[in-house]
Amino acid sequence: MAKYSRKMACTTCCLTQSIFRGLSPEQLEILNENRHEVEFNAGEIMFKQGTALTHIACILQGMVKIYIEGLNKKNLLIKVARENAIIGGPGMYVDFIHHFSVAALTDVQTCFIDVNSLEKIMKMNQNLALNILKKNNIQGIQNFKKFINLTQKHMSGRIADALLYLADEIHNATSFETPLSRQDIADLTSMSKESAIRILKEFKDARIIELSNNHFTIHDREALVKISDKG
Amino acid sequence: MAKYSRKMACTTCCLTQSIFRGLSPEQLEILNENRHEVEFNAGEIMFKQGTALTHIACILQGMVKIYIEGLNKKNLLIKVARENAIIGGPGMYVDFIHHFSVAALTDVQTCFIDVNSLEKIMKMNQNLALNILKKNNIQGIQNFKKFINLTQKHMSGRIADALLYLADEIHNATSFETPLSRQDIADLTSMSKESAIRILKEFKDARIIELSNNHFTIHDREALVKISDKG
DNA sequence: ATAAAATATTGATATTAATCAACATATACT
DNA sequence: AGTATATGTTGATTAATATCAATATTTTAT
């Protein structure tokens, strides 16, 4: 955990384009008065599964991983999030418990908004509820895709999916440095670390990707798409 | 598909206790004017994945299965729903496409409500949006549980989960007749039909359950819970 | 009631992926 | 810089599960 600061105002924050679009200046001011910025160091836990969901977090800078702590200390990495992501979770309006953990992959700057204020604004402006509904549904669709990926594809298909996910949705580049460890990649694809490493090596040997340590370069995108599709 | 009828009114429908609680009589009347009842025969498809999401469906009578059509004709059964369930889906407010298919397991009576009317009422009464938000989040929590069940448990743990799910959440009885085929049970647990049958037989041989055709009786609930927990 | 079709069951075999163990490389700590 | 610790890599082995093939049972249609 770390220092408290107030560097910006909601009115000038680009997240205003996100679920907070459509809020009036007054509503944004309420938001502004009920938020606080927090910095986390790489590796620190932001939200711990099982604890009370009292705040949602906006990522202002840096990358985090969102993961379910499953059985026998095994994690399932649900997604990676970075700047402009807003992290709530399905505990909202249900039991107000975090149903996943969130950990900083890099140093991150965040903005915490308490759920009571959020609820207050939600009651003032129905756009907020609808925007959150939409955001949740987008996540729901992605979860369906993940269900199929994880339960119906073999390891190479799952690794191909993970590489395309990182390239297309996280880094927007075919060449990138990932803060994910090999274990994280294994947790993202629901396989053992050793198996993940082996598949990555296969892809490397087949010249589909290049990798040294944590730097990945996708050489043959089509091959990955094909491997992903065939399962 | 089947006949059109109007048997009841929203004001007297027990679903008014569900996401529609808190609606005014006027709002219920709008709902009532924009709904129609439809009967489906066992086996018929109510919603087909990929088609336009124009209506949500309420189940008035009977049982349905909700499943994702995945790769190579393999389905993943997400849940079973029966009386008083309301089926929307994550396409709502996103792309207005069905992201799963829904098929009748028995003859079913349903009530279809078009999404425009739903949206109209949502804008009149924020309770509706919040109720839907909550319902979606409950489903989200269940999906997280399913992720862990399907990706981190062995076959016997998954079958134990399925049996407990059917007994506790669908039939509310330790002895029940299921309309699910063996293939459906396999789709629910993400394994081959043959494997599902084998595990069921193991449970039967161990006197944990009794089964003849589609009639299941759970004899040793504790054993199932233990098998489910250990993964 | 009987034939045909669909669904269920069982055993043998092949495939996939996890685990275990050894070792290598990188990172953090005085 | 040098040791300790964590992370990554590789190969051998074991365990889990799918597939294939044969047969049985149930359901549906005539």
SSE blueprint and pairings:
The structure is a homodimer of 231-residue chains.
Chain A: E1 4-5, H1 25-33, E2 35-40, E3 45-47, E4 55-61, E5 64-69, E6 75-81, E7 86-87, E8 101-104, E9 108-114, H2 115-124, H3 126-152, H4 155-171, E10 175-177, H5 182-189, H6 193-205, E11 209-212, E12 215-218, H7 221-230
Helix pairs in contact in A: 2-3, 4-7, 5-6
The first copy, chain A, binds a DNA duplex (30 and 30 nucleotides) through helix 6.
Describe this structure in words.
2 copies of one chain form a homodimer. By secondary structure, chain A is α+β, with helices and mostly antiparallel strands. Chain A folds into 2 domains: 4-143, Jelly Rolls; 150-230, Arc Repressor Mutant, subunit A (Orthogonal Bundle), CATH 1.10.10.10. Helices cover 41% and strands 24% of the residues of chain A. Chain A is built from 7 helices and 12 strands. In chain A, the strands form 3 sheets. Chain A has a 5-stranded antiparallel beta sheet with strand order 1-2-9-4-7. A 4-stranded antiparallel beta sheet of chain A has the order 3-8-5-6. In chain A, a hairpin with a 5-residue loop joins strand 5 and strand 6. In chain A, helix 2 (115-124) crosses helix 3 (126-152), helix 4 crosses helix 7 and helix 5 crosses helix 6. The first copy, chain A, is elongated, with a radius of gyration of 19 Å. The model of chain A is unreliable at 1-5 (pLDDT under 50). The interface between A and B is large, with 40 and 40 residues. The structure holds a DNA duplex (30 and 30 nucleotides).
